[in-house]
Design brief:
By secondary structure, the chain is an all-alpha fold. Helix content is about 80%, strand content about 0%. Among the domains are: about 35 residues; about 40 residues.
Length: about 110
């Protein structure tokens, strides 16, 4: 048997250490995993739209909106009635003043 030289022994040890190191194997596995994930992300189809959807209104919000519409409707109705009463009052006042003016004009003309 031939004895290996110390240099050959050292080279063999370095080769074996570099090939069998757990850290090197983990690093290679991580690189392969990253390649696989990148390939899957590139080939995976995008699903639907990418914007954020707003959540719909709840029942409480709809009740509040309905209540506000009802109160607003009643307010508009009362305002319309008040405007009509004011219009009628102005019309009656105009008729009364017209009649008084005609009476005054008729009294002066005598």
């Amino acid at each position: 048997m031939t004895e290996a030289t110390p240099l050959a022994k050292a080279e063999a040890a370095v080769t074996e250490a570099s090939e069998n190191t757990a850290a090197v194997q983990l690093a290679l596995a991580a690189v392969e995993l990253a390649k696989t994930v990148a390939a899957q992300q590139q080939t995976a189809p995008t699903q639907g739209c990418q914007h954020q959807h707003k959540q719909g209104r709840g029942a409480g919000e709809w009740v509040a909106i309905g209540g506000a519409v009802c109160v607003g409707g009643v307010g508009i109705a009362f305002a319309s009635i008040a405007i009509a009463i004011c219009g009628i009052s102005v019309a009656v006042l105009a008729l009364i003043l017209r009649t008084i003016w005609q009476d005054v004009q008729a009294g002066r003309g005598r």
